[in-house]
Every structure is written in structure tokens, then in C-alpha cells.
Design brief:
Blueprint: E1 4-15, E2 18-29, E3 33-37, H1 44-52, E4 59-64, E5 67-68, E6 80-82, H2 94-104, H3 109-122, H4 138-150, E7 156-160, H5 168-185, E8 188-193, H6 196-202, E9 205-210, E10 213-218, H7 220-225, H8 230-235, E11 240-247, E12 251-254, E13 257-260, E14 269-275, E15 280-281, E16 292-302, E17 306-313, E18 317-326, H9 327-333, E19 340-345, E20 351-352
Parallel strand pairs: 3-8, 3-9, 6-7, 7-8
Antiparallel strand pairs: 1-2, 1-4, 4-5, 9-10, 11-12, 11-14, 12-13, 14-20, 15-19, 16-17, 16-19, 17-18
Length: about 350
């Protein structure tokens, strides 16, 4: 049984004539890991700051654990926050940084020492207490910031693009550690990110935002496999977009080729057909298979174990299509730029807008 922990009711935020947020409605369950995902300027950070009380909404209400916190100052709200820039006190030791919120609450000195030691072990930095922030790497500083945010045992953890200042390898490592820590503690977490891979890998649900509105809320699989709008399809992951014409009888014409699809219509209509690169299969293709067309390889982008392969098919149209092919498959089939290969479209993976 799930329990609603945080509810946003009709949140709006205006900066003069500019509408930064428009009627945001969202419910978050206790213990959920939620990601606000969207491009720069979409309103995700503004929404996080409103939850934290660092911005005041123009209209709407915020209910946390049954309490209306809409107009409470930050100090009276139950959350810990981690910023992109770490925001550690450079003149304080790691111990003093982590203990900062506990000291302000006049917690006993011994209890503070025990809590700090516990948290530094939890974030993988035992023995780092006497050091200063400048003596730590970026990833270590962000771990200290995370420990500080958790020190007071908040009911809500807010993460404002906490990984964007780190190098690629450290980002991957720390995001896994944050998710593991969140699972262990069960703290309700809201993270802001513009990184699709980050959101897909850690979130229980993703809130995709664009121009101050929520385009879709769903699990990573739902958002990726069943995008609700063209924006979501285009923003989350790579996508091929082709002009097509839906026909009665579960079929769609793309260029000169008729494909079987799962959507039936009463009358023909023009659509945009959205296909993920992995939904164009190079194998297995058997004689007599439907939804097959031939294409020529124009570019191979090497990415290690697999490649982004750009292909073009005269019978489909002038657009370049992106297909994911493994390095082993390319080698086995002797494929290179200029090679022709058959591709099969998966009917159940076609999306129409």
C-alpha cells in the first residue's frame, strides 16, 4: 500500500509577465525517488526551489505529510538539500560541515559526533572528518554535501542537479551510490536533472517538463517506451521521425512501403511515425517477414560495444535513420559504410502523433 507524502496543487509561478510554471499538479508517494527532467528553462529548478521554500509560488498549495507548508520559511520545512555547486563551508572541516544542521538544533555533542561518523561511513568517507573541502575531489565534496543534507534525518531529500559538475565516470559512480543510499534509508527524494540517462537509471518515476508544464509523469519504461507527446519522444532518448499515412486495416504507408501496425483508424490520415533506433531490427529477419525494407549504411559512429549506424533507404524517403548495431554484428556481417542491409520495423513499437 502506497502513502502520499508530497502533493503539489495547481502550482503557478510568474516572474512579471513570464509564466515560469503553469498549474502544476503532482503527487509523490512516501519513499519514492522522483526526477524532474527537462531542458534548461523548463521550470524544473524553480519547482524544486518552491518545494524548498527558496522561491514563493504565485498560486497553489504544497502539502507535505498532511501539512500545508505553502507559506512556511525554509527553516520550518522538513527537507535536506544538495546543490550542484556543493555549497560547503570552505573554512569548516568535513565534520563541521556535516554537523552544521545538528549544531543549529542544539543536539548533544556526543550524539552529533556519532551521527557524523555514521553518515561519513554511509557515504564512503570514513576518516575524512578532519579534512577541509579543498582537500577533497569534486565527488568527495558532493558526498559530504549529501551527508550534511541527511544529518537531521529529513523526510524529504532535494537534489538540484547534484552530479552535473562532476566528470562522466564520477557521475555514473555517484548516481548509483545515491540510488543505493536512498533505497537503504527509504527517504522520499526529488532530483532535478537535464540528463536523460541519469533520470532513466535512478528514478522510480520521471516528471518530464517543458515550458513550465508537465508533459508526462511515468516510470522510466513508460516515458521511454510510451511517450505521451512528441516532445517527450524527442527529448527522452534518440528517435527517428518519419512522415506516414495511417490506413484502415492496421497499416501505415511510409514512403513507398506499406507497414503493418497496431493502430486501426476509420479513415486515412497523415501522421508522424516515431521509432526508436532499437526498434529497427537488423536480425533475426526470415524470408517472408513483414515490415522489412532495405537500407544503405552512410555513417558508423563507434561507441565501444555498439555503434550508432546512420542509414538511408530510397523506398522510405530522404531522411537518415539511426539504428543501434553491436560491434560484433557489424564484424560478423562484414558491414561498413556503403553496405546494404535489411531492416525490420517492430509494429508494437511504432508511435504516432
Amino acid at each position: 500500500m502506497t502513502t502520499q507524502y508530497l502533493r503539489l496543487d495547481a502550482i503557478r509561478k510568474s516572474f512579471g509577465d513570464f509564466q515560469a510554471l503553469q498549474d502544476i499538479h503532482l503527487s509523490i508517494e512516501k519513499g519514492e525517488f522522483i526526477c524532474f527532467l527537462g531542458p534548461s528553462g523548463c521550470g524544473k529548478t524553480t519547482l524544486l526551489r518552491i518545494i524548498a521554500g527558496l522561491e514563493t509560488q504565485t498560486a497553489g498549495a504544497i502539502i507535505q505529510s498532511g501539512r500545508d507548508i505553502s507559506r512556511l520559511p525554509p527553516a520550518e520545512r522538513d527537507y535536506g538539500i544538495v546543490f550542484q555547486s556543493y555549497a560547503l563551508f570552505p573554512n569548516l572541516t568535513v565534520t563541521a560541515n556535516v554537523a552544521y544542521g545538528l549544531v543549529n538544533r542544539r543536539v548533544a555533542r556526543r550524539a552529533i559526533a556519532e551521527r557524523v561518523e555514521e553518515l561519513l561511513k554511509l557515504v564512503g568517507l570514513p576518516g575524512s572528518g578532519p579534512k577541509f573541502p579543498a582537500q577533497l575531489s569534486g565527488g568527495q565534496q558532493q558526498r559530504v554535501a549529501l551527508a550534511r543534507a541527511l544529518a537531521t534525518k529529513p523526510g524529504l531529500l532535494l537534489l538540484d542537479e547534484p552530479l552535473s559538475a562532476l566528470d562522466a565516470l564520477e557521475r555514473v559512480r555517484l548516481r548509483a551510490e545515491i540510488r543505493s543510499l536512498q533505497n537503504k534509508l527509504g527517504v522520499t527524494t526529488v532530483m532535478v536533472t537535464h540528463d536523460q540517462e541519469e533520470a532513466l537509471s535512478v528514478a522510480d518515476r520521471i516528471v518530464v517538463m517543458n515550458q513550465g508544464v508537465i508533459e508526462q509523469v511515468g516510470t522510466p519504461m513508460q516515458v521511454y517506451r510510451d511517450p505521451a507527446t512528441p516532445f517527450v519522444a524527442d527529448f527522452v532518448g534518440k528517435i527517428n521521425v518519419l512522415p506516414g499515412r495511417l490506413q484502415p486495416g492496421r497499416s501505415v504507408h511510409i514512403g513507398q512501403v506499406r507497414f503493418v501496425c497496431e493502430l486501426d483508424v476509420d479513415a486515412a490520415r497523415d501522421v508522424k511515425v516515431y521509432l526508436r533506433p532499437e526498434d529497427l531490427l537488423a536480425r533475426p529477419i526470415a524470408p517472408g517477414d513483414s515490415n522489412v525494407f532495405h537500407a544503405e549504411i552512410e555513417k558508423i559512429e563507434f561507441l565501444g560495444a555498439y555503434c550508432h549506424v546512420s542509414v538511408r533507404s530510397a523506398c522510405i524517403g530522404p531522411q537518415l535513420l539511426t539504428v543501434y548495431l553491436s560491434l560484433n554484428f557489424l564484424a560478423e556481417q562484414g558491414l561498413a559504410v556503403g553496405s546494404r542491409l535489411p531492416l525490420r520495423v517492430m509494429p508494437e513499437r511504432m508511435r504516432f502523433f
